[in-house]
Amino acid sequence: MTLITSLIETQEFATLPPVAAKVLQLLENEDTDIREIAEIIEADPSLTLKLLRVANSPLYAMRQNVTSIRQAIVTLGLNRLTNIVLGVSIFSRFLMKSKKESASIMDKFWWHSSSTGILAKTLTKKIGKNYKEMEFIGGLLHDIGKLAMLQFDINKYAQVIEKIEREQIMDCEAEIEIFGVDHLEVGEHIAKLWKLPDELVDIIGHHNNPDLIDLSKELISVVRMSDLFCEMWGASMYEGYTLIKLNETKPWMILTELNPEIKDLDFEKFTFELEEEFKKAKDFLNIISS
Fold first, then answer.
1. To which H or E segment does residue 91 belong?
2. What pLDDT digit, counting tens, does each position of 92-140 carry?
């Protein structure tokens, strides 16, 4: 049994949450009726409540109160709602399971993940794109490999953190030294095992190197920039950076090449705009953990 197999298949990471798996399976059929999808989701009352609370939160600023999953599908669109189901079901499942672990590290992980997802939505809006919530869900799940490592052996991951801070090296390098594999590879294996959409597989497995992926590189760059914003502004997850020059990073170069209008973005001004987004991240965590 390989280390990656041990990290994934001996834990709950071996299977996608049931509702998410059923919804993905239904979507493979182009003739699927939205009523079928609504019924599957509504069979899980806890997930349904969380989805409706998310849909009615400031994240989406709906003009009318959404009171049913079918209404959410009509209002948000099937693809967007499906991606929200994926994110909320996965995120809430592991958030609830991790409460007995080391509180300080796990709290930091969930805060970083939710903040990255929210900031990715903001940045997507800034460049005028519509990824149908892939950026949000990608932000939530981009470090799922770290979560697998944390839940497999949190004491061992504490050694990774200690190594990052003591030797001032990057997280992937420290993970390989301690675990023999990094969170990108672990996360990509999980995403493929779950048969997540290709865009999410690419985000999870390649968010550190968006230039290596052709089809999804703009989307991955949005998530990666949001990840880096979090590293800079108090929602970090022990990545190992001591200094980040945002305008010199690969994802920023990709985004400005594809969207020249944002080349002169005032990062300082954008920082002030993000204060409200971090509040939304806290609200999202409260919804999911309740």
1. helix 78-97
2. 888 876 656 577 888 899 999 999 999 999 999 989 999 989 999 999 9
pLDDT at 152 over 70: yes
The CA distance from 84 to 255, in Å, is 24
CA distances in angstroms from 78 to 34, 37, 149, 287, listed in the order given: 8, 9, 33, 22
Which residues fall within 8 angstroms of residue 36, CB to CB, at 6 or more apart? 26
Average pLDDT over residues 260-276: 83
In angstroms, what CA-CA distances link 115 with 18, 30, 118, 266? 26, 33, 5, 20
Residue 71 contacts by C-beta under 8 Å, 6 or more apart in sequence? none
Q: Which residues, 6+ apart, have CB-to-CB distance to 173 below 8 Å?
A: 182, 240
Domain hosting residue 127, numbered range: 3-14+102-289
Nearest to 179 by CA among 209, 150, 138, 204: 150
Structure tokens at 36: 């079928």
Residue 218 clears pLDDT 80, i.e. is over it: yes
Nearest by Cα to 287 from 49, 122, 61: 49
Structurally, how many domains does the chain consist of?
A: 1
Q: CA-to-CA distance for 35 and 245, rounded, in angstroms?
A: 48
Kindly state whether residue 280 falls inside one of the protein's structural domains: yes
**209 in any annotated domain:** yes
Q: What angle do CA 42, 46, 51 make, to 5 degrees?
A: 70
Maximum pairwise Cα distance, the chain: 56
pTM of the model as a whole: 0.91
Residue 219 lies in a domain: yes
- 270 contacts: CB under 8 Å, gap ≥ 6: 126
